[in-house]
């Protein structure tokens, strides 16, 4: 009896020892062979992971929660194998590449209704390709140009590049920690076999839990209407120096250099986004009509105040660039193009707002 218990105890200890020795080895081998570690870090030069980047998908979902609607808001969203939206793969048309974050990606605007689709209809001579990535800051856009667009598209095919800039850049200007260094979560998501499987399962659970709406952190539901007249902010040189030290200026210059290097034959336009609720009196003065409860990206004063400094930095950099540069800035924010009813939260456009953006670009860029 005693010997039997001793044998069972010995077997149990041996089994635990066996698991502790061979389980890590098993997981290591399966990670190595079924993950993307070798493919990305051994066979790919200058591999960079892009957070929130998705490709080869065809999604259909109900976005009523995002739109704060009681009725269904059916959205169809597709990305091809290269990661682009609205690209005519079999077409030989010259390309207009549009880059930026959520207001370029248009995650919650259905196929055929984005501002790129509007331009496709207005100017059928060109293929307006959506290369935006929801959630990216300017640094994410820089990485996209360097490690995605410059490799996926041929330079001779791209005649114009449009960078739709604004809201998402504030996060980078106010926080150097945002995406500047690759997070371990992003690296694991892109390369790990086990982590990607677990993440997909959790995302599916969250997808159905949130009424079939894939909500990202950059999108908020509008809880209140805009207020009026709001609070006025004026540009001060002392504050401008603080913003300049954030590293945004250097990153903006790097993006311009990368665009000119990757697409030397293309004309490059920067659209300075207009956000409803930010009533600009001039380049150095703005009224913020957003509700006081609206706090986005932990801004120093207000989203409108930060936009004012952001656009002044961009214009200052562009004015100091050599005249041979093909960079042109369109200050859309100084015009009332998009109204309060054209956005579904406080920033992101619905199909009506997207059409207005497309029409603005059509009027102001000579294609």
Outline of the structure:
The protein has 367 residues and is of the alpha/beta class.
Give structural notes.
With 367 residues, this protein is α/β, with parallel strands linked by helices. It has one domain: 3-Layer(aba) Sandwich (Rossmann fold), CATH 3.40.50. 41% of the residues lie in helices and 14% in strands. It has 12 helices and 10 strands. It has helices at residues 2-34, 37-41, 102-105, 115-122, 138-152, 169-174, 184-191, 193-209, 237-244, 248-262, 303-319, 351-364; strands spanning 57-62, 74-79, 95-100, 127-130, 158-165, 231-234, 267-272, 278-282, 285-288, 327-330. α5 (138-152) packs parallel to α10, α7 (184-191) packs across α8 and α10 crosses α11 (303-319). The longest helix has 33 residues, at 2-34. The protein is globular and about 80 Å long.
Percent strand equals 5-15%
What's the count of strands? 10
Q: Residue-averaged pLDDT, rounded?
A: 83
Largest beta-sheet characterization:
5 strands, parallel
Task: Tally the structural domains.
Answer: 1
CATH class category name = Alpha Beta
Number of helical regions: 12
CATH homologous superfamily title: SGNH hydrolase
Strand order of the largest sheet: 4-3-5-7-10
Question: Could you list some keywords that capture this structure?
Answer:
Rossmann fold; alpha/beta; 41% helix; 3-stranded antiparallel beta sheet; globular; 10 strands; 5-stranded parallel beta sheet; 367 residues; 12 helices
